[in-house]
Design goal:
The chain is 80% helix and 0% strand. With 166 residues, it is an all-alpha fold. The protein has one domain. It is elongated, with a radius of gyration of 16 Å. The two termini are 30 Å apart. The chain has six helices and no strands.
């Protein structure tokens, strides 16, 4: 598997988008299946945003200061996603607002992915060389096994604060 940071992040995006499609295709009364899918989504998003906030964003911010506004927006989008994830961890799949909250989460994450893949990643690829992207990706992959899996873990909750105060 490639350690190119953009390739690594796009692979995460593919996994999450596939889980979203599975959720959207699930029958209205498939609450157990929807609950399982959302649990997996929450874990995938927690790991992914942690790696971006701890490695990708700070490195790109340091190396490509012209992208700072876009990085700050990405941190804020992650914050919104984190809040939705925290709320979903406390909801049962048969809660009347569960599907609606998941729909809002999906909408927000898809928007974020579209911005990253359509606008931000091309700028990063243009601004950084292959070795830099490989090094950033390798660091993310090294951190992945120890990344928080639950959005309510202290490491996960602190990630946005730590990243913004850097």
């Amino acid at each position: 598997m490639s350690t190119d940071a953009i390739v690594v992040l796009k692979e995460d995006h593919k996994k999450v988008k596939s889980l979203f499609r599975d959720f959207e295709r699930a029958a209205d009364d498939a609450t157990a299946r929807k609950g399982e899918l959302v649990s997996t989504v929450l874990e995938e998003l927690t790991v992914h945003t942690y790696l971006e906030d701890q490695v990708m964003y700070p490195e790109v911010r340091r190396l490509l200061p012209d992208l700072e506004d876009e990085i700050l927006e990405s941190y804020e989008e992650h914050h919104v996603v984190d809040l939705l994830c925290i709320e979903l961890t406390g909801m049962a799949p048969d809660d009347e607002r569960f599907d609606a909250k998941v729909a809002v989460l999906i909408e927000n994450v898809r928007h974020h992915i579209d911005e990253e893949e359509g606008d931000w990643f091309p700028k990063v690829r243009e601004g950084l060389d292959r070795a830099q992207l490989q090094e950033i990706g390798a660091r993310m992959q090294e951190m992945r096994p120890n990344a928080p899996r639950n959005v309510t873990e202290v490491k996960s909750l602190r990630k946005a604060v730590d990243a913004l105060s850097a």
